[in-house]
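Bug #77: duplicate submission created two jobs. Keeping one. Sequence:
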Amino acid sequence: MTLAARYAVNCSLLFKELPVLERPAAARAAGFDAIEFWWPWATPVVTAAEVDAFAAAVRDAGVALVGLNFFAGDVPGPDCGVASLPARAGEFRDNIALAIELGGRLGTRRFNALFGNRVDGADPAAQDELGVESLIAAARAASAIDATVMVEPVSGPKPYPLRTAADAMAIVERVRREGAVENVGLLADFFHLANNGDDVPAAIEAHGRDIVHVQIADAPGRHEPGTGTLDLTGWTRQLLNGGYDGWIALEYVPSAGSAESFGWLPAAQRRSSR
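Kept job's structure:
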């Protein structure tokens, strides 16, 4: 029997019109009981009071934080992770303990580690080695709360080296092998994979057992499903038919207001049933 999809709202792209601490409650008011966030702050380490306020906002809203990014720099700006950046990998390491502690408090078990752009003057092989070392450190820390670190292919003009599912899986397999860790998997963002020209059904077929989290948006535009041409329904069905039981995170830019962008998803399907 095919499992029903479980949806979560990415509160870093949706409800951006609201302060961060008001977004979990807005997601709940829209009918969802699960959310995810990029790292909510501009720095890798913040005060205990800031962490407490964020945790309280999630708990008070009555939603589950099912996904959280490690610190990744200025993602809306020039950055796409710092784990493999020679001058900034220390920021990633500094963030690991706090991210895992926050996840432990809120029951979060999926942590996205954006790998980082290529840097002028840096040897790509040396960057990859540094990135793998960073992810090994993250995976070992995450194992303390039975959590998984995720590696994501990303599209767009930034010089990000992981473009296809196979690119990301090469890093996942290297982290597993060199770090003797198993809690590393693939974050399959259907928008990014399609935007990069990857064959999404083939990627699901080849790497389905390694996919631990999914994000969706339509293309072109990166808006809600139904605004573009991607077969998000078919790809999701293929994934579920293959036994995927994780979350489908709505990581899109709403074409109008955030609350108005959920019309494609019936209210009865917004709450998780498992």
